[in-house]
Design goal:
By secondary structure, the protein is mainly β. The chain folds into 2 domains: 3-40, no CATH class; 52-186, no CATH class. Helix content is 13%, strand content 44%.
Length: 188
């Protein structure tokens, strides 16, 4: 039995990660094999993200997501809190009181994807994706459920990332045009 096999069987991800790095295996393949560990959980992530997240536009569409009252949803678990959208003209809209992060702006800065925490009696806590559209002033909440979202890219209405980045990771590709919508909320 090799050192790598022993590391995997004993759930010693740090050793398995180190071995794969020394073998020059690419980072995405390591993450899919071993899962995330502290060394490769880059900031921002679901456990540590900024209180403000701006789209960095210099025009009338300038907007910032502001998080407050952040708390761990369980001991050592990701954080959640109140999320508000603050638009340039001083308009502030409540997105939700159980929003996770980090939120991810699309390439134009006019849409933002936000992980939203929910809970059910039998299933416990899970996340859904919410998309805030600055042009339409809407929050679109999708039906699909995830464990813990780590969103990486949001381009051409497609979100890519990882579901459950620490344990049993799965790569996700979420096309906002094809996924089932749970509800659309007007922001006013």
């Amino acid at each position: 039995m090799t050192e790598f096999d022993r590391a995997i069987k004993k759930d010693n991800r740090n050793n398995a990660y180190r071995i794969l790095r020394e073998l020059k295996v690419d980072e995405p393949s390591i993450i899919l094999t071993v899962g995330y560990i502290k060394e490769n959980m880059k900031y921002p992530n679901a456990w540590d993200f900024p209180n403000e997240n701006s789209n960095k536009l210099k025009n009338e569409n300038n907007a910032t997501l502001e998080y407050s009252n952040l708390f761990e949803i369980g001991m050592g678990a990701p954080i959640s809190g109140i999320c508000k959208l603050n638009k340039k003209r001083g308009n502030i809209f409540l997105i939700g009181d159980n929003c996770g992060g980090p939120a991810l702006w699309n390439e134009s800065g006019l849409k933002v994807a936000i992980p939203i925490w929910e809970k059910s009696f039998l299933r416990g806590k899970f996340q859904k994706i919410g998309i805030v559209d600055l042009k339409k002033n809407t929050l679109t909440k999708y039906k699909k459920k995830f464990q813990v979202l780590h969103l990486e890219t949001f381009e051409n209405n497609k979100i890519q990332g990882i579901d459950s980045p620490i344990h049993k990771s799965k790569t996700i590709e979420f096309n906002v045009e094809n996924e089932k919508v749970e509800k659309i909320i007007e922001l006013n």
